[in-house]
Each structure stands twice: as structure tokens, then as C-alpha cells.
Write a structure and sequence with these properties.
Layout: E1 11-16, H1 21-36, E2 45-50, H2 56-70, H3 78-84, E3 87-91, H4 100-106, E4 112-117, H5 124-133, E5 142-146, H6 153-164, E6 172-175, H7 182-192, E7 206-214, H8 223-226, H9 230-248, H10 257-270, E8 279-285, H11 293-296, E9 307-312, E10 324-329, E11 336-343, E12 361-367, E13 371-379, E14 388-396, H12 397-400, H13 411-421, H14 430-450, E15 455-458, H15 465-472
Parallel strand pairs: 1-2, 1-4, 2-3, 4-5, 5-6, 7-10, 8-15
Antiparallel strand pairs: 7-11, 8-9, 9-10, 11-12, 12-13, 13-14
């Protein structure tokens, strides 16, 4: 199956922080891939902006090396040479007036104007103010801001207020790359474009839902940053919250940005407060071969969690009585992200000693090997009577859509093109961010008040033993963490 590429309108995209890690690893390679796919017009302009003093040629050389390394493209690829012609560079002072007149002179009339804030959140307000005061941005311009969107409810409100002084909500694109993943978008298609699952998508038929985001890497190299956030701020409040919303939301009246985000907001507001006994915090330990979290964070007294598991309940008619189990952590057994919808077992089995029917499971794999599989019971092949066995009906995107892993679009590719199109469906709204923090803040406050240290767990394991007991007390089991 060949995907249909719809070109976007002519645009000027300014990437603030263009010499930084995110721009080099993700943004520039994503733009190159969309250019190769024919989605970006030859007339488009991508303008790097940062403190570093350099000319266009030096920035293009830097971009060439970054795209070659992170996009696995030979530096002498003629397509890369054509793409680099779209690039320009302007040195700007985010906290002063230097360079802003030069940046304004590069902007073209009649093109879509977008500004990507690939910088620390502390600079968001300074850049927004100067874009407005120098007349570079207008009411049709769009800005893209990266997480973290604050570190608690108050700072999130302050950030929203700061951006709102210069831009309307319809101009602000709060990016969460998880929402750009093909499988996450297909979750909405599976739910709302097929009659098969929606009648069963409720507490009458769903026993529980598991959402897992496991990583094999630790926090070495970014320990000082991570130690100020922890797993709940880094993953639960944003990425996992978005996955929870897409699983639990009601069907929107239309696939429209505000309609979709209205339904997600309803889910967040329906979340029950989490009881202390329904949360497990963990911290990976060194084993002689690899360092532990405290060493990676360079803080022997740290009480920041590198792992969190929790039981979450939603107070509405659809999900009352069906728990959602969330877990995420560093230095676990395998790198995997998945959503598992576990249905209830049949109320009565007509098969006696031939194998008890097991619960059906719909598993949505986000990484690696994006795809979905549905576990169903069938008769085991062969003579000798009726013997039941559970098998997966598997759909790997690579097999079903004729794409290998290298052809699967990166999340940033889709999201940046949505910014140019002016489509906010896969971006978070300000009230959604604040509602998520309003639910998360009491959890963090309770941890801090308790003064308890996170539970230790071995690097390469599935997490602390207490997380297993969190499920066992409900007569349930975590799915095995595996690639």
C-alpha cells in the first residue's frame, strides 16, 4: 500500500534553538523526509535561529551532518543538497533586540509563518514577546512549544498566560510527539471507523486496561534535569495521560480539533484522586556493571522516582468499575510501549476439560514494531477432540501496509506538517494541560509529604516487586515486558 502525500502550502518555518539537540536529532531530519516525500514545496524556507554567530553556509553544513547522522542519509545525496537550499540562518538574542530585524527581513509575505520554540521553557515568554513587538508574527502565525508545559498547575497557568499575551489559543501548538505516532492515530481509527469494538468498549466487557512505557536506558547524561522532574512529570502527566484519554474518550461529534480535545478534557476531569496505596514509585539500582539512579543523577540523597506504577479509575458511566493500570520506568528489561485492553472472560464455558477460555486482549504496540494484535481462542489444529488455544490475530504495520521500519513516518514529520496545515487535533489545548496538572499535583504533594524513598529495583528487571503486588491484590497480572 502506498501512502498518499498531500503537499502543504508554501511556508516560512523559524526553528529557535536550531543548533540544539532536538532540532538536530528530530526536527531537521523530519523536515528532510517530508521534503523527499514531496510534501514540502521547493519554495518553502526553513530559518534556523539561535545565539551562535554563523552564516547560512555554516548552518547548512551543520544541518547536513545532523541529517546524515540521525536520518541515515549519505552526505553526498543529491536530495539532501536540494533540501539544504531551503535553509537559512539568523543569529538572535532571545533576551535582547539583536538579530530580530534581520529575522523579520527574511520573512515572506503570503507564506504560512510558523515558529518552533525548540528551546528551554524559560525562553518561551521572551521569544513570544519579541516576535510580537518586532512585528514578525501576526494573528495568522503559529507557534510550536515543546514540553515540559510547566512543572505543576501554577507554572502551567503562568506559561499559558504568558503565551496568551501575544498569541491566541488557536495559534499555539503544544507538541507531544506520542500523539504523532501512527499507531496512536490508528487507535482512533480502530475505535471510531469500525463497528466491531465500540459496542464492547465499556466496563461491561472490558476487565481492565494496561498502559506500559518501558525504557532500557537510564538517566545518565541528563540526570540533573531528570532529578527535578521524575517519571510522573516526565511521562505520566503528558504522554501517558494522552494515551489514557484516547482509550477512554467518548466519540467526538466530528474529527475536529476542538471536538476531539473536548472529549479528552472530559476524561481528565473524570479521573478519581489516586489513593496512596494505588501508587508504586521505584528507583533503579546499580549492579556493579552499570550505575544506579543516584549515581546517574549525581545526588546520593535523591528521592526522585525513575519508575512509577499506578491504578487509575474514571468516574463516568462508560468506565465505572474498570481500572486503568499505568507503568513507566527507566532501565527496564526491554524498550517497549503498548496499550493492552483486556476484556472480561466468557461468563460460562461450554468446554469442560479441553482448556478454559482465556480473556481476549487487544494489544496496541507503539514501539518497537508498531502494530496491533487481537488475542482470540481457537481450536488447536489436529485430531483428538476440542482443545482450545489462544492465538493472536496480528497486524504489523510493516507487513500490512507494505512498509519496513525505515519507511514508517516519524511522529515529528506528521506533527510539523499539521502545524503548517493549521490542524490542532493532535496538539494539547491549554485547559487540557492545566486539568492534567490539577490531577497530578496532589499525587506529587502526597509523595513529598510522606518523605518515603522510592522502592529499589534491579536494572534490567520489570520494576519493583511492589508493582507486581499492586496487580496481584486485584487478581490480575502485568503483561510481560518484552521487545
Amino acid at each position: 500500500m502506498v501512502s498518499r502525500v498531500i503537499p502543504v502550502d508554501d511556508f516560512d518555518l523559524v526553528v529557535f534553538g536550531a543548533t540544539g539537540d532536538l532540532a538536530q536529532r528530530k526536527i531537521l531530519p523530519a523536515l528532510f523526509r517530508r521534503f523527499v516525500a514531496g510534501q514540502i514545496p521547493e519554495s518553502a524556507r526553513i530559518i534556523g535561529a539561535a545565539r551562535t554567530e554563523q552564516d547560512d553556509a555554516a548552518f547548512r553544513d551543520e544541518a547536513r551532518r545532523a541529517i546524515s547522522e540521525h536520518g541515515r542519509v549519505p552526505q553526498d545525496d543529491p536530495r539532501l543538497a536540494r533540501f539544504l537550499e531551503l535553509l537559512a540562518y539568523t543569529a538572535v538574542d532571545a533576551k535582547g533586540d539583536g538579530g530580530w530585524a534581520d529575522l523579520k527581513a527574511r520573512m515572506r509575505e503570503g507564506a504560512v509563518h510558523a515558529f518552533y520554540f525548540s528551546v528551554a521553557p524559560a525562553l518561551f515568554g521572551d521569544i513570544a514577546e519579541r516576535l510580537a513587538s518586532h512585528g514578525i508574527a501576526d494573528r495568522d502565525s503559529r507557534i510550536v512549544v515543546e514540553k515540559p508545559f510547566g512543572r505543576d498547575l501554577q507554572t502551567a497557568r503562568d506559561l499559558n498566560d504568558m503565551l496568551a499575551r501575544h498569541f491566541g489559543e488557536q495559534q499555539i501548538y503544544r507538541i507531544d510527539h506520542y500523539l504523532g505516532k501512527e499507531t496512536v492515530q490508528n487507535l482512533m481509527a480502530v475505535r471510531f471507523a469500525n463497528i466491531l469494538f465500540e459496542p464492547l468498549w465499556n466496563s461491561q466487557y472490558v476487565d481492565h486496561v494496561q498502559i506500559t512505557v518501558a525504557e532500557t536506558v537510564g538517566v545518565a547524561g541528563r540526570g540533573s534535569y531528570y532529578d527535578k522532574s521524575g517519571a510522573i512529570r516526565d511521562m505520566v502527566q503528558n504522554h501517558m495521560m494522552q494515551l489514557l484519554c484516547l482509550i477512554a474518550m467518548e466519540p467526538p461529534y466530528h474529527f475536529d480539533p476542538n471536538a476531539v480535545r473536548d472529549e479528552k478534557l472530559k476524561v481528565i476531569r473524570a479521573l478519581q484522586p489516586v489513593e496512596p496505596d494505588d501508587i508504586v514509585r521505584g528507583q533503579y539500582q546499580g549492579d556493579g556493571k552499570s550505575t544506579g539512579y543516584a549515581e546517574d543523577a549525581e545526588n546520593p540523597a535523591t528521592r526522585t522516582e525513575s519508575y512509577v506504577a499506578m491504578k487509575v479509575c474514571i468516574s463516568n458511566w462508560r468506565w465505572q468499575g474498570t481500572p486503568f493500570y499505568l507503568r513507566t520506568g527507566k532501565k527496564l528489561r526491554a524498550r517497549t510501549s503498548e496499550i493492552a485492553v483486556v476484556f472480561r472472560e466468557p461468563p460460562h464455558s461450554i468446554f469442560d476439560d479441553t482448556g478454559a477460555p482465556k480473556a481476549n486482549e487487544l494489544v496496541i504496540r507503539l514501539q518497537p514494531n508498531e502494530g496491533m494484535n487481537l488475542k482470540v481462542m481457537i481450536k488447536e489444529p489436529g485430531p483428538g477432540g476440542m482443545r482450545l488455544v489462544q492465538v493472536p490475530l496480528d497486524m504489523s504495520f510493516a507487513d500490512a501496509l507494505g512498509q519496513d521500519g525505515s519507511d514508517m513516518p516519524d511522529a515529528y514529520e506528521r506533527l510539523i506538517m499539521d502545524v503548517i496545515r493549521g490542524n490542532q487535533t493532535l496538539f494539547m489545548r491549554g485547559d487540557e494541560v492545566e486539568a492534567a496538572w490539577a490531577w497530578t499535583d496532589p499525587i506529587i504533594a502526597a509523595w513529598e509529604d510522606s518523605k518515603r524513598r522510592p522502592e529499589p529495583y534491579d536494572a534490567g528487571s520489570s520494576g519493583p516487586e511492589e508493582a507486581l503486588r499492586l496487580m496481584h491484590r486485584d487478581n490480575r497480572r502485568w503483561r510481560e515486558i518484552r521487545p
